[in-house]
Amino acid sequence: MTDKVFEKAITKQFEFDEEVASVFDDMLNRSVPFYKEMQRLTINFALNFLEENDKVYDLGCSTASTLIELSKHSHSKLDLIGIDNSEAMINRAKKKAKAFGVDIKLINDDLDNISYENAKLILSNYTLQFIRPLQREKLVKKIYNNLRNEGIFIFSEKVISSNKILDKQYIDEYYEFKKTQGYSEFEIAQKREALENVLVPYTEEENKKMILDVGFDHCETLFKWVNFATFIAIKK
Predict the structure, then answer these.
(1) Residue 84 annotated as binding?
(2) Cβ atoms within 10 A of the Cβ of 46, count?
(3) Which fold has domain 5-234?
(4) H or E segment to which residue 213 belongs
(5) Residue 4: is its pLDDT beyond 80?
(6) Is 151 annotated in some ligand binding site?
(7) Where does the chain bind S-adenosyl-L-methionine (predicted)?
(8) Chain-wide mean pLDDT for the chain?
(9) pLDDT band at 5, cuts 50/70/90?
(10) Can you tell me the distance from the alpha carbon of 211 to that of 12, in angstroms, rounded to the nearest whole number?
(11) 135 Cβ partners below 8 Å, 6+ apart?
(12) Each residue of 165-221: pLDDT tens digit?
Protein backbone atom coordinates (compact mmCIF):
# COMPACT_ATOMS: atom_id res chain seq x y z
CA MET A 1 0.00 0.00 0.00
CA THR A 2 1.08 3.59 -0.69
CA ASP A 3 2.07 5.77 2.25
CA LYS A 4 -0.51 8.55 2.64
CA VAL A 5 -0.41 8.75 6.44
CA PHE A 6 0.54 12.43 6.54
CA GLU A 7 -1.73 13.74 3.82
CA LYS A 8 -4.13 14.78 6.59
CA ALA A 9 -3.46 17.00 9.59
CA ILE A 10 -1.79 15.13 12.46
CA THR A 11 -3.58 14.68 15.78
CA LYS A 12 -0.87 12.85 17.73
CA GLN A 13 2.83 12.10 17.89
CA PHE A 14 4.25 9.48 15.55
CA GLU A 15 3.66 5.87 16.56
CA PHE A 16 3.95 2.51 14.87
CA ASP A 17 0.24 1.76 14.85
CA GLU A 18 -1.87 -0.17 12.35
CA GLU A 19 -2.11 2.81 10.00
CA VAL A 20 1.68 3.10 9.80
CA ALA A 21 2.25 -0.67 9.72
CA SER A 22 -0.06 -1.08 6.74
CA VAL A 23 2.13 1.22 4.58
CA PHE A 24 5.47 0.79 6.34
CA ASP A 25 7.37 -0.93 3.54
CA ASP A 26 6.45 1.85 1.12
CA MET A 27 7.26 4.46 3.79
CA LEU A 28 10.75 3.01 4.28
CA ASN A 29 11.57 2.81 0.59
CA ARG A 30 10.42 6.37 -0.05
CA SER A 31 11.64 7.97 3.20
CA VAL A 32 15.06 6.38 3.70
CA PRO A 33 17.54 7.14 0.92
CA PHE A 34 19.21 4.03 -0.52
CA TYR A 35 17.32 1.80 1.90
CA LYS A 36 17.65 -1.26 -0.33
CA GLU A 37 21.39 -0.67 -0.75
CA MET A 38 21.79 -0.34 3.02
CA GLN A 39 19.88 -3.58 3.49
CA ARG A 40 22.00 -5.33 0.83
CA LEU A 41 25.25 -4.25 2.49
CA THR A 42 23.96 -5.26 5.93
CA ILE A 43 23.13 -8.74 4.68
CA ASN A 44 26.36 -9.21 2.73
CA PHE A 45 28.56 -8.19 5.67
CA ALA A 46 26.48 -10.21 8.13
CA LEU A 47 26.79 -13.38 6.05
CA ASN A 48 30.58 -13.21 6.30
CA PHE A 49 30.27 -13.79 10.06
CA LEU A 50 27.40 -16.29 10.21
CA GLU A 51 27.57 -20.08 10.36
CA GLU A 52 25.07 -22.93 10.65
CA ASN A 53 22.45 -22.43 13.40
CA ASP A 54 23.81 -19.05 14.50
CA LYS A 55 21.31 -16.95 16.40
CA VAL A 56 20.27 -13.61 14.86
CA TYR A 57 18.14 -10.95 16.55
CA ASP A 58 16.51 -8.01 14.77
CA LEU A 59 15.56 -5.29 17.26
CA GLY A 60 12.60 -3.29 16.04
CA CYS A 61 12.12 -5.74 13.19
CA SER A 62 8.97 -3.98 11.87
CA THR A 63 7.61 -6.16 9.03
CA ALA A 64 10.66 -8.51 9.14
CA SER A 65 11.97 -7.50 5.72
CA THR A 66 15.65 -7.69 6.70
CA LEU A 67 15.35 -11.11 8.36
CA ILE A 68 13.46 -12.45 5.35
CA GLU A 69 16.14 -11.17 2.97
CA LEU A 70 18.89 -12.55 5.21
CA SER A 71 17.25 -15.98 5.15
CA LYS A 72 16.84 -15.89 1.37
CA HIS A 73 20.54 -15.15 0.84
CA SER A 74 22.02 -17.43 3.51
CA HIS A 75 23.32 -20.90 2.60
CA SER A 76 23.17 -21.84 6.29
CA LYS A 77 20.16 -22.47 8.49
CA LEU A 78 19.89 -19.56 10.93
CA ASP A 79 17.93 -19.11 14.13
CA LEU A 80 16.07 -15.89 13.32
CA ILE A 81 14.32 -13.82 15.99
CA GLY A 82 12.48 -10.55 15.37
CA ILE A 83 11.34 -8.28 18.18
CA ASP A 84 9.05 -5.26 17.98
CA ASN A 85 6.89 -3.51 20.58
CA SER A 86 4.26 -2.74 17.92
CA GLU A 87 1.64 -5.47 17.73
CA ALA A 88 0.56 -4.17 14.32
CA MET A 89 4.11 -4.58 12.98
CA ILE A 90 4.48 -8.09 14.38
CA ASN A 91 1.16 -9.13 12.83
CA ARG A 92 2.36 -7.85 9.44
CA ALA A 93 5.70 -9.59 9.92
CA LYS A 94 4.02 -12.92 10.63
CA LYS A 95 1.96 -12.71 7.46
CA LYS A 96 4.97 -11.74 5.36
CA ALA A 97 7.23 -14.46 6.81
CA LYS A 98 4.53 -17.04 6.12
CA ALA A 99 4.10 -15.78 2.55
CA PHE A 100 7.85 -16.11 1.90
CA GLY A 101 8.11 -19.44 3.70
CA VAL A 102 10.70 -18.15 6.17
CA ASP A 103 10.83 -19.50 9.73
CA ILE A 104 11.19 -16.52 12.10
CA LYS A 105 10.35 -16.35 15.78
CA LEU A 106 8.49 -13.05 16.12
CA ILE A 107 8.04 -11.46 19.55
CA ASN A 108 5.79 -8.54 20.46
CA ASP A 109 7.55 -7.01 23.47
CA ASP A 110 9.76 -4.14 24.63
CA LEU A 111 13.44 -4.57 23.80
CA ASP A 112 14.40 -4.21 27.47
CA ASN A 113 12.39 -7.31 28.35
CA ILE A 114 14.27 -9.66 26.04
CA SER A 115 17.42 -11.60 26.82
CA TYR A 116 19.57 -11.81 23.68
CA GLU A 117 21.35 -14.94 24.75
CA ASN A 118 24.04 -16.53 22.60
CA ALA A 119 23.58 -13.98 19.80
CA LYS A 120 26.04 -14.04 16.92
CA LEU A 121 24.44 -11.11 15.10
CA ILE A 122 22.18 -8.36 16.36
CA LEU A 123 20.54 -5.99 13.91
CA SER A 124 18.87 -2.67 14.62
CA ASN A 125 17.64 -0.61 11.68
CA TYR A 126 16.48 2.89 12.64
CA THR A 127 15.39 1.69 16.08
CA LEU A 128 17.84 3.13 18.63
CA GLN A 129 16.91 6.67 17.58
CA PHE A 130 13.45 6.12 19.09
CA ILE A 131 14.89 5.16 22.49
CA ARG A 132 15.67 7.85 25.06
CA PRO A 133 19.46 8.42 25.41
CA LEU A 134 19.87 6.94 28.92
CA GLN A 135 17.88 3.84 28.02
CA ARG A 136 19.59 3.67 24.63
CA GLU A 137 23.03 3.30 26.16
CA LYS A 138 21.76 0.67 28.61
CA LEU A 139 20.34 -1.32 25.70
CA VAL A 140 23.59 -1.09 23.73
CA LYS A 141 25.46 -2.36 26.79
CA LYS A 142 23.00 -5.26 27.01
CA ILE A 143 23.58 -5.98 23.33
CA TYR A 144 27.33 -6.09 23.88
CA ASN A 145 27.06 -8.32 26.95
CA ASN A 146 24.88 -10.87 25.17
CA LEU A 147 26.82 -11.13 21.94
CA ARG A 148 29.16 -14.08 21.61
CA ASN A 149 32.84 -13.44 21.04
CA GLU A 150 33.36 -12.59 17.36
CA GLY A 151 29.75 -11.42 17.31
CA ILE A 152 28.67 -8.33 15.43
CA PHE A 153 26.15 -5.55 15.82
CA ILE A 154 24.94 -3.82 12.65
CA PHE A 155 22.70 -0.82 13.08
CA SER A 156 21.38 2.06 11.00
CA GLU A 157 20.43 5.47 12.33
CA LYS A 158 19.39 8.90 11.22
CA VAL A 159 22.28 11.21 12.19
CA ILE A 160 22.79 14.91 12.71
CA SER A 161 25.82 17.14 12.20
CA SER A 162 27.51 18.98 15.05
CA ASN A 163 27.98 21.85 12.60
CA LYS A 164 24.78 23.93 12.44
CA ILE A 165 25.34 25.04 8.85
CA LEU A 166 25.92 21.51 7.64
CA ASP A 167 23.01 20.19 9.69
CA LYS A 168 20.66 22.66 7.96
CA GLN A 169 22.02 21.49 4.61
CA TYR A 170 21.45 17.88 5.69
CA ILE A 171 17.80 18.64 6.36
CA ASP A 172 17.33 20.58 3.11
CA GLU A 173 18.94 17.82 1.05
CA TYR A 174 16.79 15.18 2.72
CA TYR A 175 13.59 17.13 2.10
CA GLU A 176 14.50 17.46 -1.55
CA PHE A 177 14.93 13.70 -1.68
CA LYS A 178 11.50 13.16 -0.16
CA LYS A 179 9.95 15.49 -2.73
CA THR A 180 11.44 13.36 -5.52
CA GLN A 181 9.68 10.37 -3.92
CA GLY A 182 6.30 12.03 -4.29
CA TYR A 183 5.82 13.50 -0.83
CA SER A 184 4.29 16.98 -0.68
CA GLU A 185 5.69 19.80 1.44
CA PHE A 186 2.62 19.44 3.66
CA GLU A 187 3.29 15.73 4.24
CA ILE A 188 6.95 16.41 4.99
CA ALA A 189 6.09 19.12 7.50
CA GLN A 190 3.41 16.97 9.13
CA LYS A 191 5.76 14.04 9.62
CA ARG A 192 8.51 16.25 10.99
CA GLU A 193 6.10 17.65 13.57
CA ALA A 194 4.84 14.18 14.50
CA LEU A 195 8.41 12.96 15.07
CA GLU A 196 9.41 15.96 17.20
CA ASN A 197 10.84 14.66 20.51
CA VAL A 198 10.01 11.09 19.43
CA LEU A 199 13.03 10.52 17.20
CA VAL A 200 16.24 11.72 18.93
CA PRO A 201 19.27 11.29 16.63
CA TYR A 202 22.97 11.37 17.54
CA THR A 203 25.88 12.55 15.45
CA GLU A 204 27.93 9.91 13.67
CA GLU A 205 30.69 10.44 16.25
CA GLU A 206 28.30 10.10 19.20
CA ASN A 207 27.01 6.80 17.86
CA LYS A 208 30.53 5.41 17.55
CA LYS A 209 31.52 6.67 21.00
CA MET A 210 28.46 5.01 22.55
CA ILE A 211 29.42 1.71 20.92
CA LEU A 212 33.06 1.82 21.98
CA ASP A 213 32.20 3.01 25.51
CA VAL A 214 30.21 -0.17 26.24
CA GLY A 215 33.15 -2.37 25.22
CA PHE A 216 33.04 -3.08 21.49
CA ASP A 217 36.52 -3.43 20.01
CA HIS A 218 35.75 -1.79 16.71
CA CYS A 219 33.04 0.34 15.12
CA GLU A 220 32.97 2.00 11.74
CA THR A 221 30.57 3.46 9.25
CA LEU A 222 29.56 0.93 6.63
CA PHE A 223 27.38 3.26 4.58
CA LYS A 224 26.34 6.91 4.74
CA TRP A 225 24.14 9.25 2.75
CA VAL A 226 23.94 12.76 4.24
CA ASN A 227 21.96 12.18 7.47
CA PHE A 228 21.49 8.39 7.24
CA ALA A 229 24.23 5.99 8.30
CA THR A 230 24.82 2.27 8.80
CA PHE A 231 27.43 1.12 11.35
CA ILE A 232 29.10 -2.20 12.04
CA ALA A 233 30.54 -3.05 15.47
CA ILE A 234 32.64 -6.10 16.34
CA LYS A 235 33.10 -7.86 19.67
CA LYS A 236 36.33 -9.82 19.88
Answers:
(1) yes
(2) 22
(3) Rossmann fold (3.40.50)
(4) helix 204-213
(5) no
(6) no
(7) 35, 60-62, 84-85, 110-111, 125, 192
(8) 93
(9) low
(10) 32
(11) 112
(12) 999 999 999 999 999 999 999 988 888 888 887 899 999 999 999 999 999 999 999
